[in-house]
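re: ur question from earlier - yeah i can do the single chain one, its not a big deal. heres the input i used so u can compare w yours
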Amino acid sequence: MKKSLQFLAVLLTVSTFTFGQDVTKRIDSIIKDSYQKNPDVGISVGFIQNNKEHFISFGKLGKESKTDINENSLFEIASITKILTSNLIAQAVVENKIKLSDYIDNYLPKQYVLHQNIRNKIKISDLASHQSGLPDFDFGKLIELNPQQPVSGVTEQTLATMINNCNELIDYGKYRYSTISYTLLGQILEKIYGQSYDQIITNKIIKPLRLKNTLTKEFNVKNRTVAHNPEGGIQEFFNWNVTAPAGLVKSTTFDMVAYLKAVLDKETAVGKAALLTEKLFYKDEKREMGLGLSIVTDEKNIIYSKSGDSMGQSSILCYNRAEGWGIIILLNQRNSKMRQVLLNEIYESILK
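and the output i got, formated as tokens:
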């Protein structure tokens, strides 16, 4: 779930480039070389620049599969889900249903009774930029209890109990990556719209963008990849539950490129909302944050990025609005190091 710092740092020197035929061949060559070095890891990559798309994939759906991965193969996009959720929050702001400066108190389900010490302190923007100060799930313990489905141990009741028992925001206003914050944002969306999170994301992102292979509760499809942990063991895709807004959407490179196209188009509802998510809401000596997005800037470039890791897959999405390009990389193994090396090689050989 951590961003590729090295890649983002070198991207700051990028000015302009085009995905001409020569460039796509060079990109394909880099990805092929990465696959040959990691033949057990399936790769699917999508590019977009100025509405021109390019896709390249290597590997099989799984180690025992004879089916090739392609741009329509289903992956867990993991925490990239968070930028979909933050986009939905921003859409609600554009629709004047909420303000980012609103406190969360009145938007939470009735089972939440905030301690008096933390009432009217946490803003919606605090949740979305990872600075709420709220406690988070202990994933180590959850994995011990259920290595295949760790988030199954989180229910609406256990979530409410965690929040209701919090009487101090120890590091409020400081960055601390938070899955619980995006789980709460999903519940806030449900209260705003009077619909379930999967209905909201379907009606506001999946259907308008015609994302045929972006799935929520039901994902038992033929084009699904097999997830593998770092040791190569098979991992189950996470089942849908209350934590879905933080990381449980499944998708493909084809659909994520369509999403990037909408993000880069200021005339779409998704694009208008994306402009709001790209605003600076947090900054310290190590990072800048929008709503769910990591931001890296210099005098010439602004790069927006979000990575994701499930128990068995790794992913990253990033884009440069000014230059009109974006990239999505999906791996069928949890392998953030490979993801970073691949991105760095693309930069050194092409983007530089």
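The CA atoms of residues 3 and 18 lie 25 Å apart. not sure if urs matches, ping me
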